[in-house]
Amino acid sequence: MMTRQIAAQAQNHAPSYYAASTNRALAFAPLQGEQEADVCIVGGGFSGLNTAIELAERGLSVVLLEAHRIGWGASGRNGGQLIRGVGHDVEQFLPVLGEAGVDALKHMGFEAVDIVRQRIERYAIDCDLSWGYCDLATKTRHLDGFQAEYADLQRLGYAHPLRLVPGHEMREVIGSDRYLGGLVDMGSGHLHPLNLALGEAAAAQSLGVRLFEQSIVERIDHGQQVRVHTAQGCVRAQQLVLAGNAYLGNLDRTLAGKVLPAGSYIIATEPLPEALGHELLPQNMAVCDQRVALDYFRLSADGRLLFGGACHYSGRDPKDIARYMQPKMLKVFPQLQGIGIDYQWGGMIGIGANRLPQIGRLAGQPNVYYAQAYSGHGLNATHLAGRLLAEAICGQLQGRFDLFARVPHPTFPGGQRLRSPLLALGMLWYRFKDLF
């Protein structure tokens, strides 16, 4: 099983199908010397890029520092699934936020997808956006959950077509007998995430944002004016945004303790015959099941199946991602036996203990903001985070930002060495529950 060589323009990006199929070449110099700005942003993924765009659109000067390449982390490697919502089980926050607050979170989960839609349209970003998504049931309790979700979306006035699909009609959605039913949402969909990130970087640059790659932040001096140091330069700014998510490292130990980097993995087949691709996903929807160790998959614009999942909390990647993931794919689609795997890759996503994005301001540092821990909803929730951070920094609609900031986020136990093994052990319990 051969993995294709990555195109020359993708050098320094993590090897993936996305890196090999970028539609624009962007490169930014490392930071050298001193820069001054209203806001410095650390992190060149979706959170940082969209915060930069939102701030620049409001007239602020922005410097963005990325340790590797724009979109190098989860933003450029994820499943490309653009799904409504900002968290898992937001009803758990009723005691903290009340019914009105929880409903506001749900509406912002709709807005998050709209921000992506509008950004793509406004800046003419070519990223293979396609609409249509289906949640897949493997247990009868999942079907009960879909019924409740459908009723709640109707109550909230969700603007896009929804459909509960019974088991005997599932072949209209997916060419597999594995699923008992589904919930179709035509307001969610899928896209090429790295091309979106690169398009947003170009948009930010056009607005005057100064972007620097290969600029690892080594030290932050806090104060009324923040000083952010790299090996060869320094940024002086009135406000700072930390948007490193699973790759934040030790820039802030308190934030790092509230997000667990978890490995997620994807394989991409060779281009499929058109008839076979249509058999697998007749309506070209993105799909995802409801298990803890979930599968998610979709077709690429050039007719490959992109099959992902296998969230790992152990901190250890599989030695051979394709060999690990292909049997999972064949359980869903046995008709792909003998089809070649052209690409295999993985990366870290940020998981929070309560699965709600962590958007707030550092305690004791009123000019330092952060956004992280999207727990699998990063493609849309990052875009919402960028808007909320910009609103807070500019003193606009502060209540929306405060709604997220009010939610407490537990610190994962065990410190850096023990955190992942302890969480891996805990997740075994939830995977055991999936069996029933």
From TrEMBL:
- The answer to whether the entry has keyword Oxidoreductase is yes
- Membrane-spanning parts: none
One Pfam family in the UniProt entry: DAO
* InterPro entries reported for this sequence: FAD-dep_OxRdtase, FAD/NAD-bd_sf
One example of the protein's molecular function in GO is:
oxidoreductase activity
Q: Which domain of life is it from?
A: Bacteria
Q: State a GO cellular component annotated for this protein.
A: cytoplasm
**Residues of the FAD dependent oxidoreductase domain:** 38-391
Name it.
Answer: FAD-dependent oxidoreductase
